[in-house]
Amino acid sequence: MQARSEEQRDDLVEQVAREIQLRGLTAPAVLFLQASRPYRPLGSSAMVFFDPTLRRVFGGELPVATEILADDLGIEQLIERLQDPDEEISWDA
Asked: What is the 3-state secondary structure (H, E, C) of 23-35?
């Protein structure tokens, strides 16, 4: 995977976080990301294992999710973003 700029990473994290929040999956996503910590040294190989789960959650329409999850800094940034109560997104009724 090519190195991404900090701005590109921020944009990808924001996009993935919004998709997770709109689907109401914030808590499960944070748990999943925290549970994946032991597998991070495996890098993109671990993402091959998690790919079916990601495709199911994102409907195969968000390939950037895999890019973020292959990046340790991106994962930590995504966890922080999802845990920020000021950034919670929901559907307006």
From this structure: CCCHHHHHHHHHH
Tens of pLDDT, residues 24-83: 889 988 998 888 777 776 666 666 666 676 666 665 555 666 677 777 888 889 899 999
Q: Please, are residues 89 and 18 in contact by the beta-carbon 8 Å criterion?
A: yes
In a 10 Å sphere around its CB, with 0-12 CB exposed, 13-18 middle and 19+ buried, how is residue 20 labelled? buried
Residues belonging to the chain:
93
d(CA 58, CA 9): 18
Contact 1, 43 (CB under 8 A): no
